[in-house]
Amino acid sequence: MLTGSGVISGVSVAHQRASVDDVAAAGADDQRAEVERLLARPGVEEAFALHTCNRTEAYVVTDDPTVGRATLGGFADEVSEESVVYTDHEESLRHLMRVAAGLESLVLGEDQIIGQVRTAYEDARGVGGIGPMLDEAVTKAIRVGERVRTETAFNEGVLSLGSAAAEVATEEVSIEDATALVVGAGEMGTLAAQSLADRGVAELVIANRTVPHAEHVAKEVDADASAVALPAAETVAERADLVVTTTASDEPLLDAEAFSDGGETTVVDVAQPRDIAPEVAELSPVTVFDLDDLQSVTDETERRRREAVDEVEAIIDREFERLLEQYKRKRADEVIAAMYESADRVKSEEVSTAVSKLEAEMDGDGDLPDEQREVLEAMADALVNKLLAPPTKSLREAAAEDDWTTINTALQLFDPDFGGEDGPPAFVSEMLEGESGELPTGVSADIPEELAEEIPDDVAAQTDD
């Protein structure tokens, strides 16, 4: 595929519209497997997948957006339609930047997501999923995330109750040597586990009624983590240095007996109603923090991050426009390169003809001297460069203004039979045959048969039009 050609299509199942079960059910088992599955589909040139606790997303590059949409149609077969969001080329580019910046995170401005995007990029590249389009899109998103974190206050402080719990706990416990128990694998439990892992906890155990949910969280965090069933929490609590509870249980899950032989333990209970029985706070080796203790930690952080949102959005707007300009320039440069290639072919033919005529006039006295040949070739190169310099500048300006009608006209004026006997390159043919005058996206009526039945009716109708 030519650099800068093709379009990106995306699909997302994320916490804003989907449950934890929906997020887990979408896509393949892991990022690499998802990318490999997508690359095996007809018409897919590049692929990228992002799997976290709170989102499962995939992106493909195809010549035709209808093919891309159809390819992603089976991404979330087991998920309700209301939980799935499809994005077109520009929406995908902007969304990737918002994700890496932390604007789409469950915890506004959280840091972990940018590392997860980097890992997903390396996973996709490792199986051949990253090409010129996605390389620029994903690396731009990562750079945006880095700028947001270094140039704004968007990620300063702790915002969620889960991360606040980890913050309070780490002030009481030497986290590098600690065993931590997180009770609950919902949103707050997941965030608490992520925050403890980010702070370098030695061992992490996640207890949950549904063990697969706990296993999913344990797999996602960067720590020595394991999962147990909820009844086992009491046993783990006996040896834990730190316990964070986050369930929605109607009754306390851990009483004084669970901590009576455990020695010094820090307990942070962010559940409502409480997961920790009141008598636990009366045990001298145990320090208990509740919601009231955590609220003040999060209020100031949330205010500062909300104030920084406009600044983050402005960075994304600027970088988004720059990325679009990069793509436009590459498309224009492809046309310009093809023009120079055609001109060089004509130049070589004419120089060869001129040399032959000069040698014929030498009455068989041998070949044209190298010095004279070099002068002739230099003159021809200079003519080509000087003649093509003004249209080159105009073509790049036209691309920047989305004026593809001017580019099409210039190509036809330059050489109506562009490309010789074999005809023009495919991407040039599409431009010359287009009637809209808009930025070409490689849309073709030739949809692979394997995908034809998967094209949604609304998308197929747009293609027919």
Structure description:
Catalyzes the NADPH-dependent reduction of glutamyl-tRNA(Glu) to glutamate 1-semialdehyde (GSA). By secondary structure, the chain is of the alpha/beta class. It folds into 3 domains: 7-156 and 304-326, Glutamyl-tRNA reductase, N-terminal domain (Beta Polymerase, domain 2), CATH 3.30.460; 161-289, NAD(P)-binding Rossmann-like Domain (Rossmann fold), CATH 3.40.50.720; 337-464. Helices cover 52% and strands 12% of the residues. The protein is built from 16 helices and 10 strands. The strands form 2 sheets. It has a 6-stranded parallel sheet, sandwiched between helices. A 4-stranded antiparallel sheet has the order 2-3-1-4. Helix 8 (187-198) links the parallel strand 5 and strand 6. The longest helix is centred in the C-terminal third of the chain and has 70 residues, at 291-360. Residues 423-428, 430-448 and 458-465 have low confidence and may be disordered.
Question: Key terms for this structure?
Answer:
465 residues, alpha/beta, Beta Polymerase, domain 2, Rossmann fold, 3 domains, six-stranded parallel β-sheet, four-stranded antiparallel β-sheet, 52% helix, elongated, disordered C terminus
Write the layout of secondary structure elements.
Blueprint: E1 7-14, H1 20-25, H2 31-39, E2 46-51, E3 55-62, H3 65-71, E4 85-87, H4 89-101, H5 112-126, H6 132-151, H7 161-172, E5 179-183, H8 187-198, E6 203-208, H9 211-220, E7 225-229, H10 233-239, E8 242-245, E9 265-269, E10 286-289, H11 291-360, H12 370-400, H13 404-414, H14 426-433, H15 449-452, H16 457-464
Parallel strand pairs: 5-6, 5-8, 6-7, 8-9, 9-10
Antiparallel strand pairs: 1-3, 1-4, 2-3
